């Protein structure tokens, strides 16, 4: 059985799977430089919130989420016509990295149909000490439950699913800690119950959390998700608008491997994007929507 076939069997049974050694160290090195660059550029944003609005003029980000090794995984689960509608680093700094409370991703997305997959790439080692993902096997069979706001203690999503539901499922099925080495991937189903703890360790925990959809899925949230990026295959007429790929510009991203020829490839915008709302403002708006509990609207 190939790694992807094994992952598909695990995913079917448990709602998640691990695929080891997907992304090599040279690309991870660029990703780490990118995170450092974002932290220097947006010092006012917590690094758990390096959200997709920052992506729009950032050629490296698009290069990373359209890496064929990641897209192959998306294609295996969602078919040949594939887009990325969200991608964010959740980077928990040492000692005070915020937890992500129990939730189902699909409860934060307005997608029709919910033909989506979360692909989580470990940029750093991710362990129980520094706040790795935790999942409840089989909980992907649950319907989606509306999360409850939770703003009285630090947590990245400002919300959590009903605690009774988690307790019941954790007692029945147990909780699996997803420990990953840099370059490993975990994938999970939009209905799966999962969380991650605070990082109180001396080691950073950074992951790139990517949402892929089949292009037949319509993004219905208003004002939250920017136009998606087509990463493979074809769009479906009348469903979603796809953006040109951003041009490489030294002001907008790092000098990643391959940046010299990035602008020569098909699909790259012919001119720099017009200046509009700044990525910080869009990201702040997104964080406000999380705090209000309206991201799925
Ligand atoms: O990175 C984390 O700690 C949480 C990620 C998560 O909840 C997700 O991928 O859906």
From TrEMBL:
Superkingdom to which the source organism belongs: Bacteria
InterPro entries with a match to the protein in the record: Phytyl_CoA_dOase-like
The protein's name: Phytanoyl-CoA dioxygenase
Origin species: Streptomyces blastmyceticus
